[in-house]
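Hi support team,

I'm opening this ticket because the web form for multi-chain structure prediction keeps timing out on my end. I have pasted the exact lines I submitted so you can reproduce it. The total is 231 residues across two entries, so I didn't expect it to be a heavy job. Is there a limit I'm missing, or should I split the entries? Thanks in advance, R.K.
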Amino acid sequence: DIQMTQSPSSLSASVGDRVTITCRASQSISSYLNWYQQKPGKAPKLLIYAASSLQSGVPSRFSGSGSGTDFTLTISSLQPEDFATYYCQQSYSTPVFTFGPGTKVDIK
Amino acid sequence: EVQLVESGGGLVQPGGSLRLSCAASGFTFSDHYMDWVRQAPGKGLEWVGRTRNKANSYTTEYAASVKGRFTISRDDSKNSLYLQMNSLKTEDTAVYYCARVSWELATYYFDYWGQGTLVTVSS
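Hello R.K., no limit was hit. The queue was backed up. Here is the completed structure from your submission:
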């Protein structure tokens, strides 16, 4: 199975900060990479699919980039509602669409 | 509006069985693959398994950790997805989510999730 790693595992940031989260795959996954946001006690929510496509209804301050093994989720200006845990997921290797371990973003 | 609503969670003893359901509405259920994903308390997301659609013969796939113990099925006439869990272990304790699988730009992704149902395996 393809292994996914994320860095950092957690970060503290302030409202208005630019935040970058990195996801790395154990082998090339082309652009088959998705990003999800999860708030405590809630289901995950799709933010980005195919590495850089913004899901409908997701604010444009979220963006994704990368291909191959290295990917980035960027929040251009952190808002209060963005404090959450973020997961990447590879959808290259079926059937197991592996998730990364998550990055928790909290308030500085 | 797309909705996925899980039910059937609860407390069960090790070695016991439980059946989860996921009721879908607001989309053509029969067109989509459907997955189960779980999350142990305080942990990350773990893919559990998948049922493909009729066009792909309703084939199923499972994570190694549940293969042989869990069975996924669906009833397109009832817009429902099921997860039969047998021989439960304490490590199966988790919130279980059903998720709709969609396909675009040659990639799969989970675009809708249920609210989750908690399964606790304990004596």
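A quick check on our side: The mean pLDDT of chain B is 97. Let us know if the file doesn't open in your viewer.
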